[in-house]
Structures are given as structure tokens and as C-alpha cells.
Amino acid sequence: MVASTFLCPLSNLYMAQVTTAITTTPTTAAEPNLEEQDNKHEKQAPTTKVFNDSSTATVMGMAMGYGIETYQIFVGSLRRTGYTGNIILAVSSDIKANSEHYLKSQNVILHKTTIVECHENITAKFNPRESSKHAQEAITCIAPYDTIKVRWGRYPVLRDQLIACKTCTGPVLITDVRDTLFQRDPFASGYDLGHTLDDTTTVKEGSIQVFQEHKSISTQHWLVKFKLRTCKNELQYHEPMLCSGTTIAATKQAMIFYLNQMHDEMKVWLADGKCHFAGNGDDQAIHNYLYYAGKLAPYAVAIPNRMGMVHTVGAQGAMILAAQQQYLKTMGPAATTPNTPEANAAPMRRHQQWLDPVYDLTDDGGYFTNYDGQRSPVVHQYDRFGAIFSHFWVRDHSNLTDLKLK
User: Fold this and answer.
1) Cβ(179)–Cβ(8) under 8 Å?
2) Which strands, in side-by-side order, build the sheet including 180-182?
3) Pairing with 400, which of 13, 111, 124, 262 sits 20 to 30 Å away (CA)?
4) Bridge partner list, 62
5) Judging by beta carbons within 10 Å of its beta carbon (0-12, 13-18, 19+), is residue 240 exposed, middle or buried?
6) pLDDT tens track for 211-242
């Protein structure tokens, strides 16, 4: 069964490109114009009413093919923040009994998806000799959207579920599930949602938030650059990369607007042969295109990384993990022996302060922080740091997730 997640990936090729930039400093060199763009987008951040109640909020995601531990991290960490709102997950029709029991015990609304045979405009691009998981996902579709591969199909599927939800009357977060955890209730964390919420039937300026990745990644990354140049007649943007894995809307209608825009643009790509790509990741290209082409204006605002509800840690995680691996290779066995000077000097360590403070990404307890020093409500792509965080640190902090539940 396919495991689905919103794609803002760091490929092995990309990781090889960026690892040379990491030293002992907490950030990487970036193109000069990206610094200016960071400042520009900071000024665009909404400054109106803050929402501090999650009871009418909704968190949604595609969660097909995962084991119970993924749900215990995602749902468990969210509920343990005190979040009381809706959680809607699209799951496999054959979800395991223990996973289904756990999710229902956490009042998760489950939408069991049906895998269907894709239309030939999808399967024609498939190389029958390619059997990787990503290749299989590229030709997997879910009902009733057989003309859209599963990574695209989640947008209309989640939209349909949101429309059908009668209790989803507040703000909405759509996010990856596999690589996301929560440190604070995103809708009771004091961050701005873009406008007052007294009118939930219309889409207002600034009511949709899209989130920038680390400034070392721009839309010149091949994931967006190649696809837009091919599909949109050499179109290029030199802007901060926006991750399609997390989007927040202040109202239900605002999120439906965003999902409709994504679905409509997908239909445009499907109708144009040069916009057909066999691999994954083109939803990220569409997400960036819609924002930078002004098709989400004036409703969407780009939030700089570590400046709002979502902290996308993947780029720095991949670079720090590469630095860790190089350090261990250089220092030898002493670097993996607990409490030795070599082990304590590594970029990442096996104790509460798991990440070297020089990176300025975590607090004394090891939790990820925003620039304001507060713990980041939503941490996306945490798995890019490898086992020291995602396996050992997360499991050692039983108050964070439900991993230790029987």
C-alpha cells in the first residue's frame, strides 16, 4: 500500500549539493537576494487578530499506508498539546486494526480511501521496469479522481472531506503526516491567522498562509525550476521556496479556495502534454506557481521559516545530518562512545540537548524553536535529522507523543 505525504523532498542529489555548505555555523550561505526577500516577506506577515482557541479548528492530512507509530507521533503529539479540534485523516481502506482503534480513541475522523486504476494519461508515463515506491506512487490513484496521481489526488479528496465536515467551522491546517509533529497547539499558540474570524463565509486578504523553507532553498531548485520551465514556457522565479506540505487557512472557505485553486491548476497541467511528469514533486511546483503568479492573491501570504506556526526543518536537518556523518567518519569509534569528549563534540548527541547549541535551532530541552525563542508549534520534516532525533530523542520524551502506549 502506498504511503502518501505532501512532497517537499530533499533528494540525494540535492543533499549532495547542500552538504558542502555546512560547517560549524548554524546557517548556510544563501544567495544575497534571498536575505532581502526574507525581510520583504516578514513585512507581509499578517498583523490582525490572533486566534487562541482550537475547539473549532481542523487538522487534515493524507495518511495512507502508515503503521501505528506514525499515528502515535502525529496525532499523539497534537492531542497532547491540548488541541481539542477536529482531526481528519485519509487512510488506507485496509488500515490495521490497532491503528484504527488508536485513531478512533483520539476522536480522529477517518476517511477510508479506495485505490483505483489510473487513467491512461497517468500510466502511459510509467516505466514498467521502474519498481521504486516513488514510481509506484506516480501511477497510483484514489477514487473518485482516476485522472490524478495520488500525490495530487489528496487535494480534492481532502477538500471534499472538509466540505462535508459540519463541525469544521474554524481555521484549517493541511499538513504532511509522516514527518510532522506538534510541540504546541498551533491554534492556541498566539500566532496570527491573518484576519478577524467573525465572518467565516468569505475569503479575505491574508487568510491563507503558505510557508517558506530554509533560505538556502529557492525556486531555482530543480524540483520547481525544471517543471515550471517545461510546463510554463521557460517561466522562472527567483524566490524563496514554499513547501506544499503545510498550508494554513483562517477559515474553512479560505482553505476550500486554496484546494480548488490547486485542483484547477492540476487540470490545466493534465490538459497539456508538456506538463505531464512521471515522477513526484510537481504539486510543489504548482503550489509555488500559484503563489508567485498571483493566483492566490490577495488572500495568501508567505510566512518566513521559523516566524509562524510552522517550522520546516528539513533543509538544515539534511545538512546537519551530513555533517554528523562526516564527523563520525573522521573521528572514528570514539565519536560514538557515550560521554567521551569526541561524542560530546559531535553535531548531534544522544542526550536531552541532542543538537549542538551552535546551530541555535533548539532550546535547553531539545525542542525546536522559532526566532522569537518560543517552541515551534508545528515541526515539519523532523526526520531529516536522522535517528538521533526521530528515533531516540522522540521516544525518550514520553510526554511528547503516544509512542509508549500499549
Assistant:
1) no
2) 180-182, 378-380, 310-312
3) 111
4) 90
5) buried
6) 999 999 999 999 899 999 999 999 999 999 99
SS3 assignment, position 116? strand
* CA–CA separation, 260 and 87 (whole Å): 21
- Give Cβ neighbours of residue 71 (< 8 Å, ≥ 6 apart): 63, 89, 99, 102, 103, 177
- Share the mean pLDDT of the chain: 85
CA proximity to 310, closest of 382, 230, 394, 246: 246
Determine the Cα–Cα distance for residues 99 and 106; give it in Å rounded to an integer: 11
Instruction: Supply angle C-alpha 174, 175, 177, rounded to 5.
Output: 135
Cα distance between residue 11 and residue 223, in whole Å: 9
Q: Is 126 exposed, middle or buried (0-12, 13-18, 19+ CB in 10 A)?
A: middle
Q: Which of 50, 10, 116 is nearest to 381 (CA)?
A: 10
Please state which of the ranges 100-104, 143-147, 257-261, 375-379 shows the lowest mean pLDDT: 143-147
**43-69 per-position pLDDT tens digit:** 344 444 556 789 999 999 999 999 999
Q: In what order do the strands lie in the sheet with 141-142?
A: 115-116, 141-142, 145-149
Percent of the chain with pLDDT over 90: 66
Q: What is the pLDDT of residue 277?
A: 81
Rounded distance between C-alpha atoms, residue 162 and residue 148, angstroms: 19
Q: What is the pLDDT of residues 142-173, one digit of tens each?
A: 999 998 888 899 999 999 999 999 999 999 99
Cell, residue 328:
563520525
b/e map 192-220, b = 16+ CB within 10 Å: bbbbebeebeebbebbbbbbbbbbbbbbe
- Residue appearing with cell numbers 572514528: 332
The three cell numbers of residue 58 are 481542523
195's grid cell: 484576519
Report which of residues 259 and 2 the model is more confident about. Answer: 259
Reported as half-sphere exposure (CB side, CA atoms, 13 A), residue 161 has a value of: 27
Whats the size of the chain, residue-wise?
406
* pTM for this model (two decimals): 0.85
Give first-to-last CA distance, the chain, whole Å: 25
Please name the helix (run of DSSP H) or strand (run of DSSP E) that holds residue 245, with its range, or none.
strand 242-249
Rounded Cα distance between 220 and 197, Å, is: 36
Q: Which fold has domain 58-311?
A: Spore Coat Polysaccharide Biosynthesis Protein SpsA; Chain A (3.90.550)
Sequence spans of domains, the chain = 26-31+314-396, 58-311
pLDDT in tens, 277-287: 876 778 999 99
Which three three-digit cell numbers place residue 136? Answer: 509506484
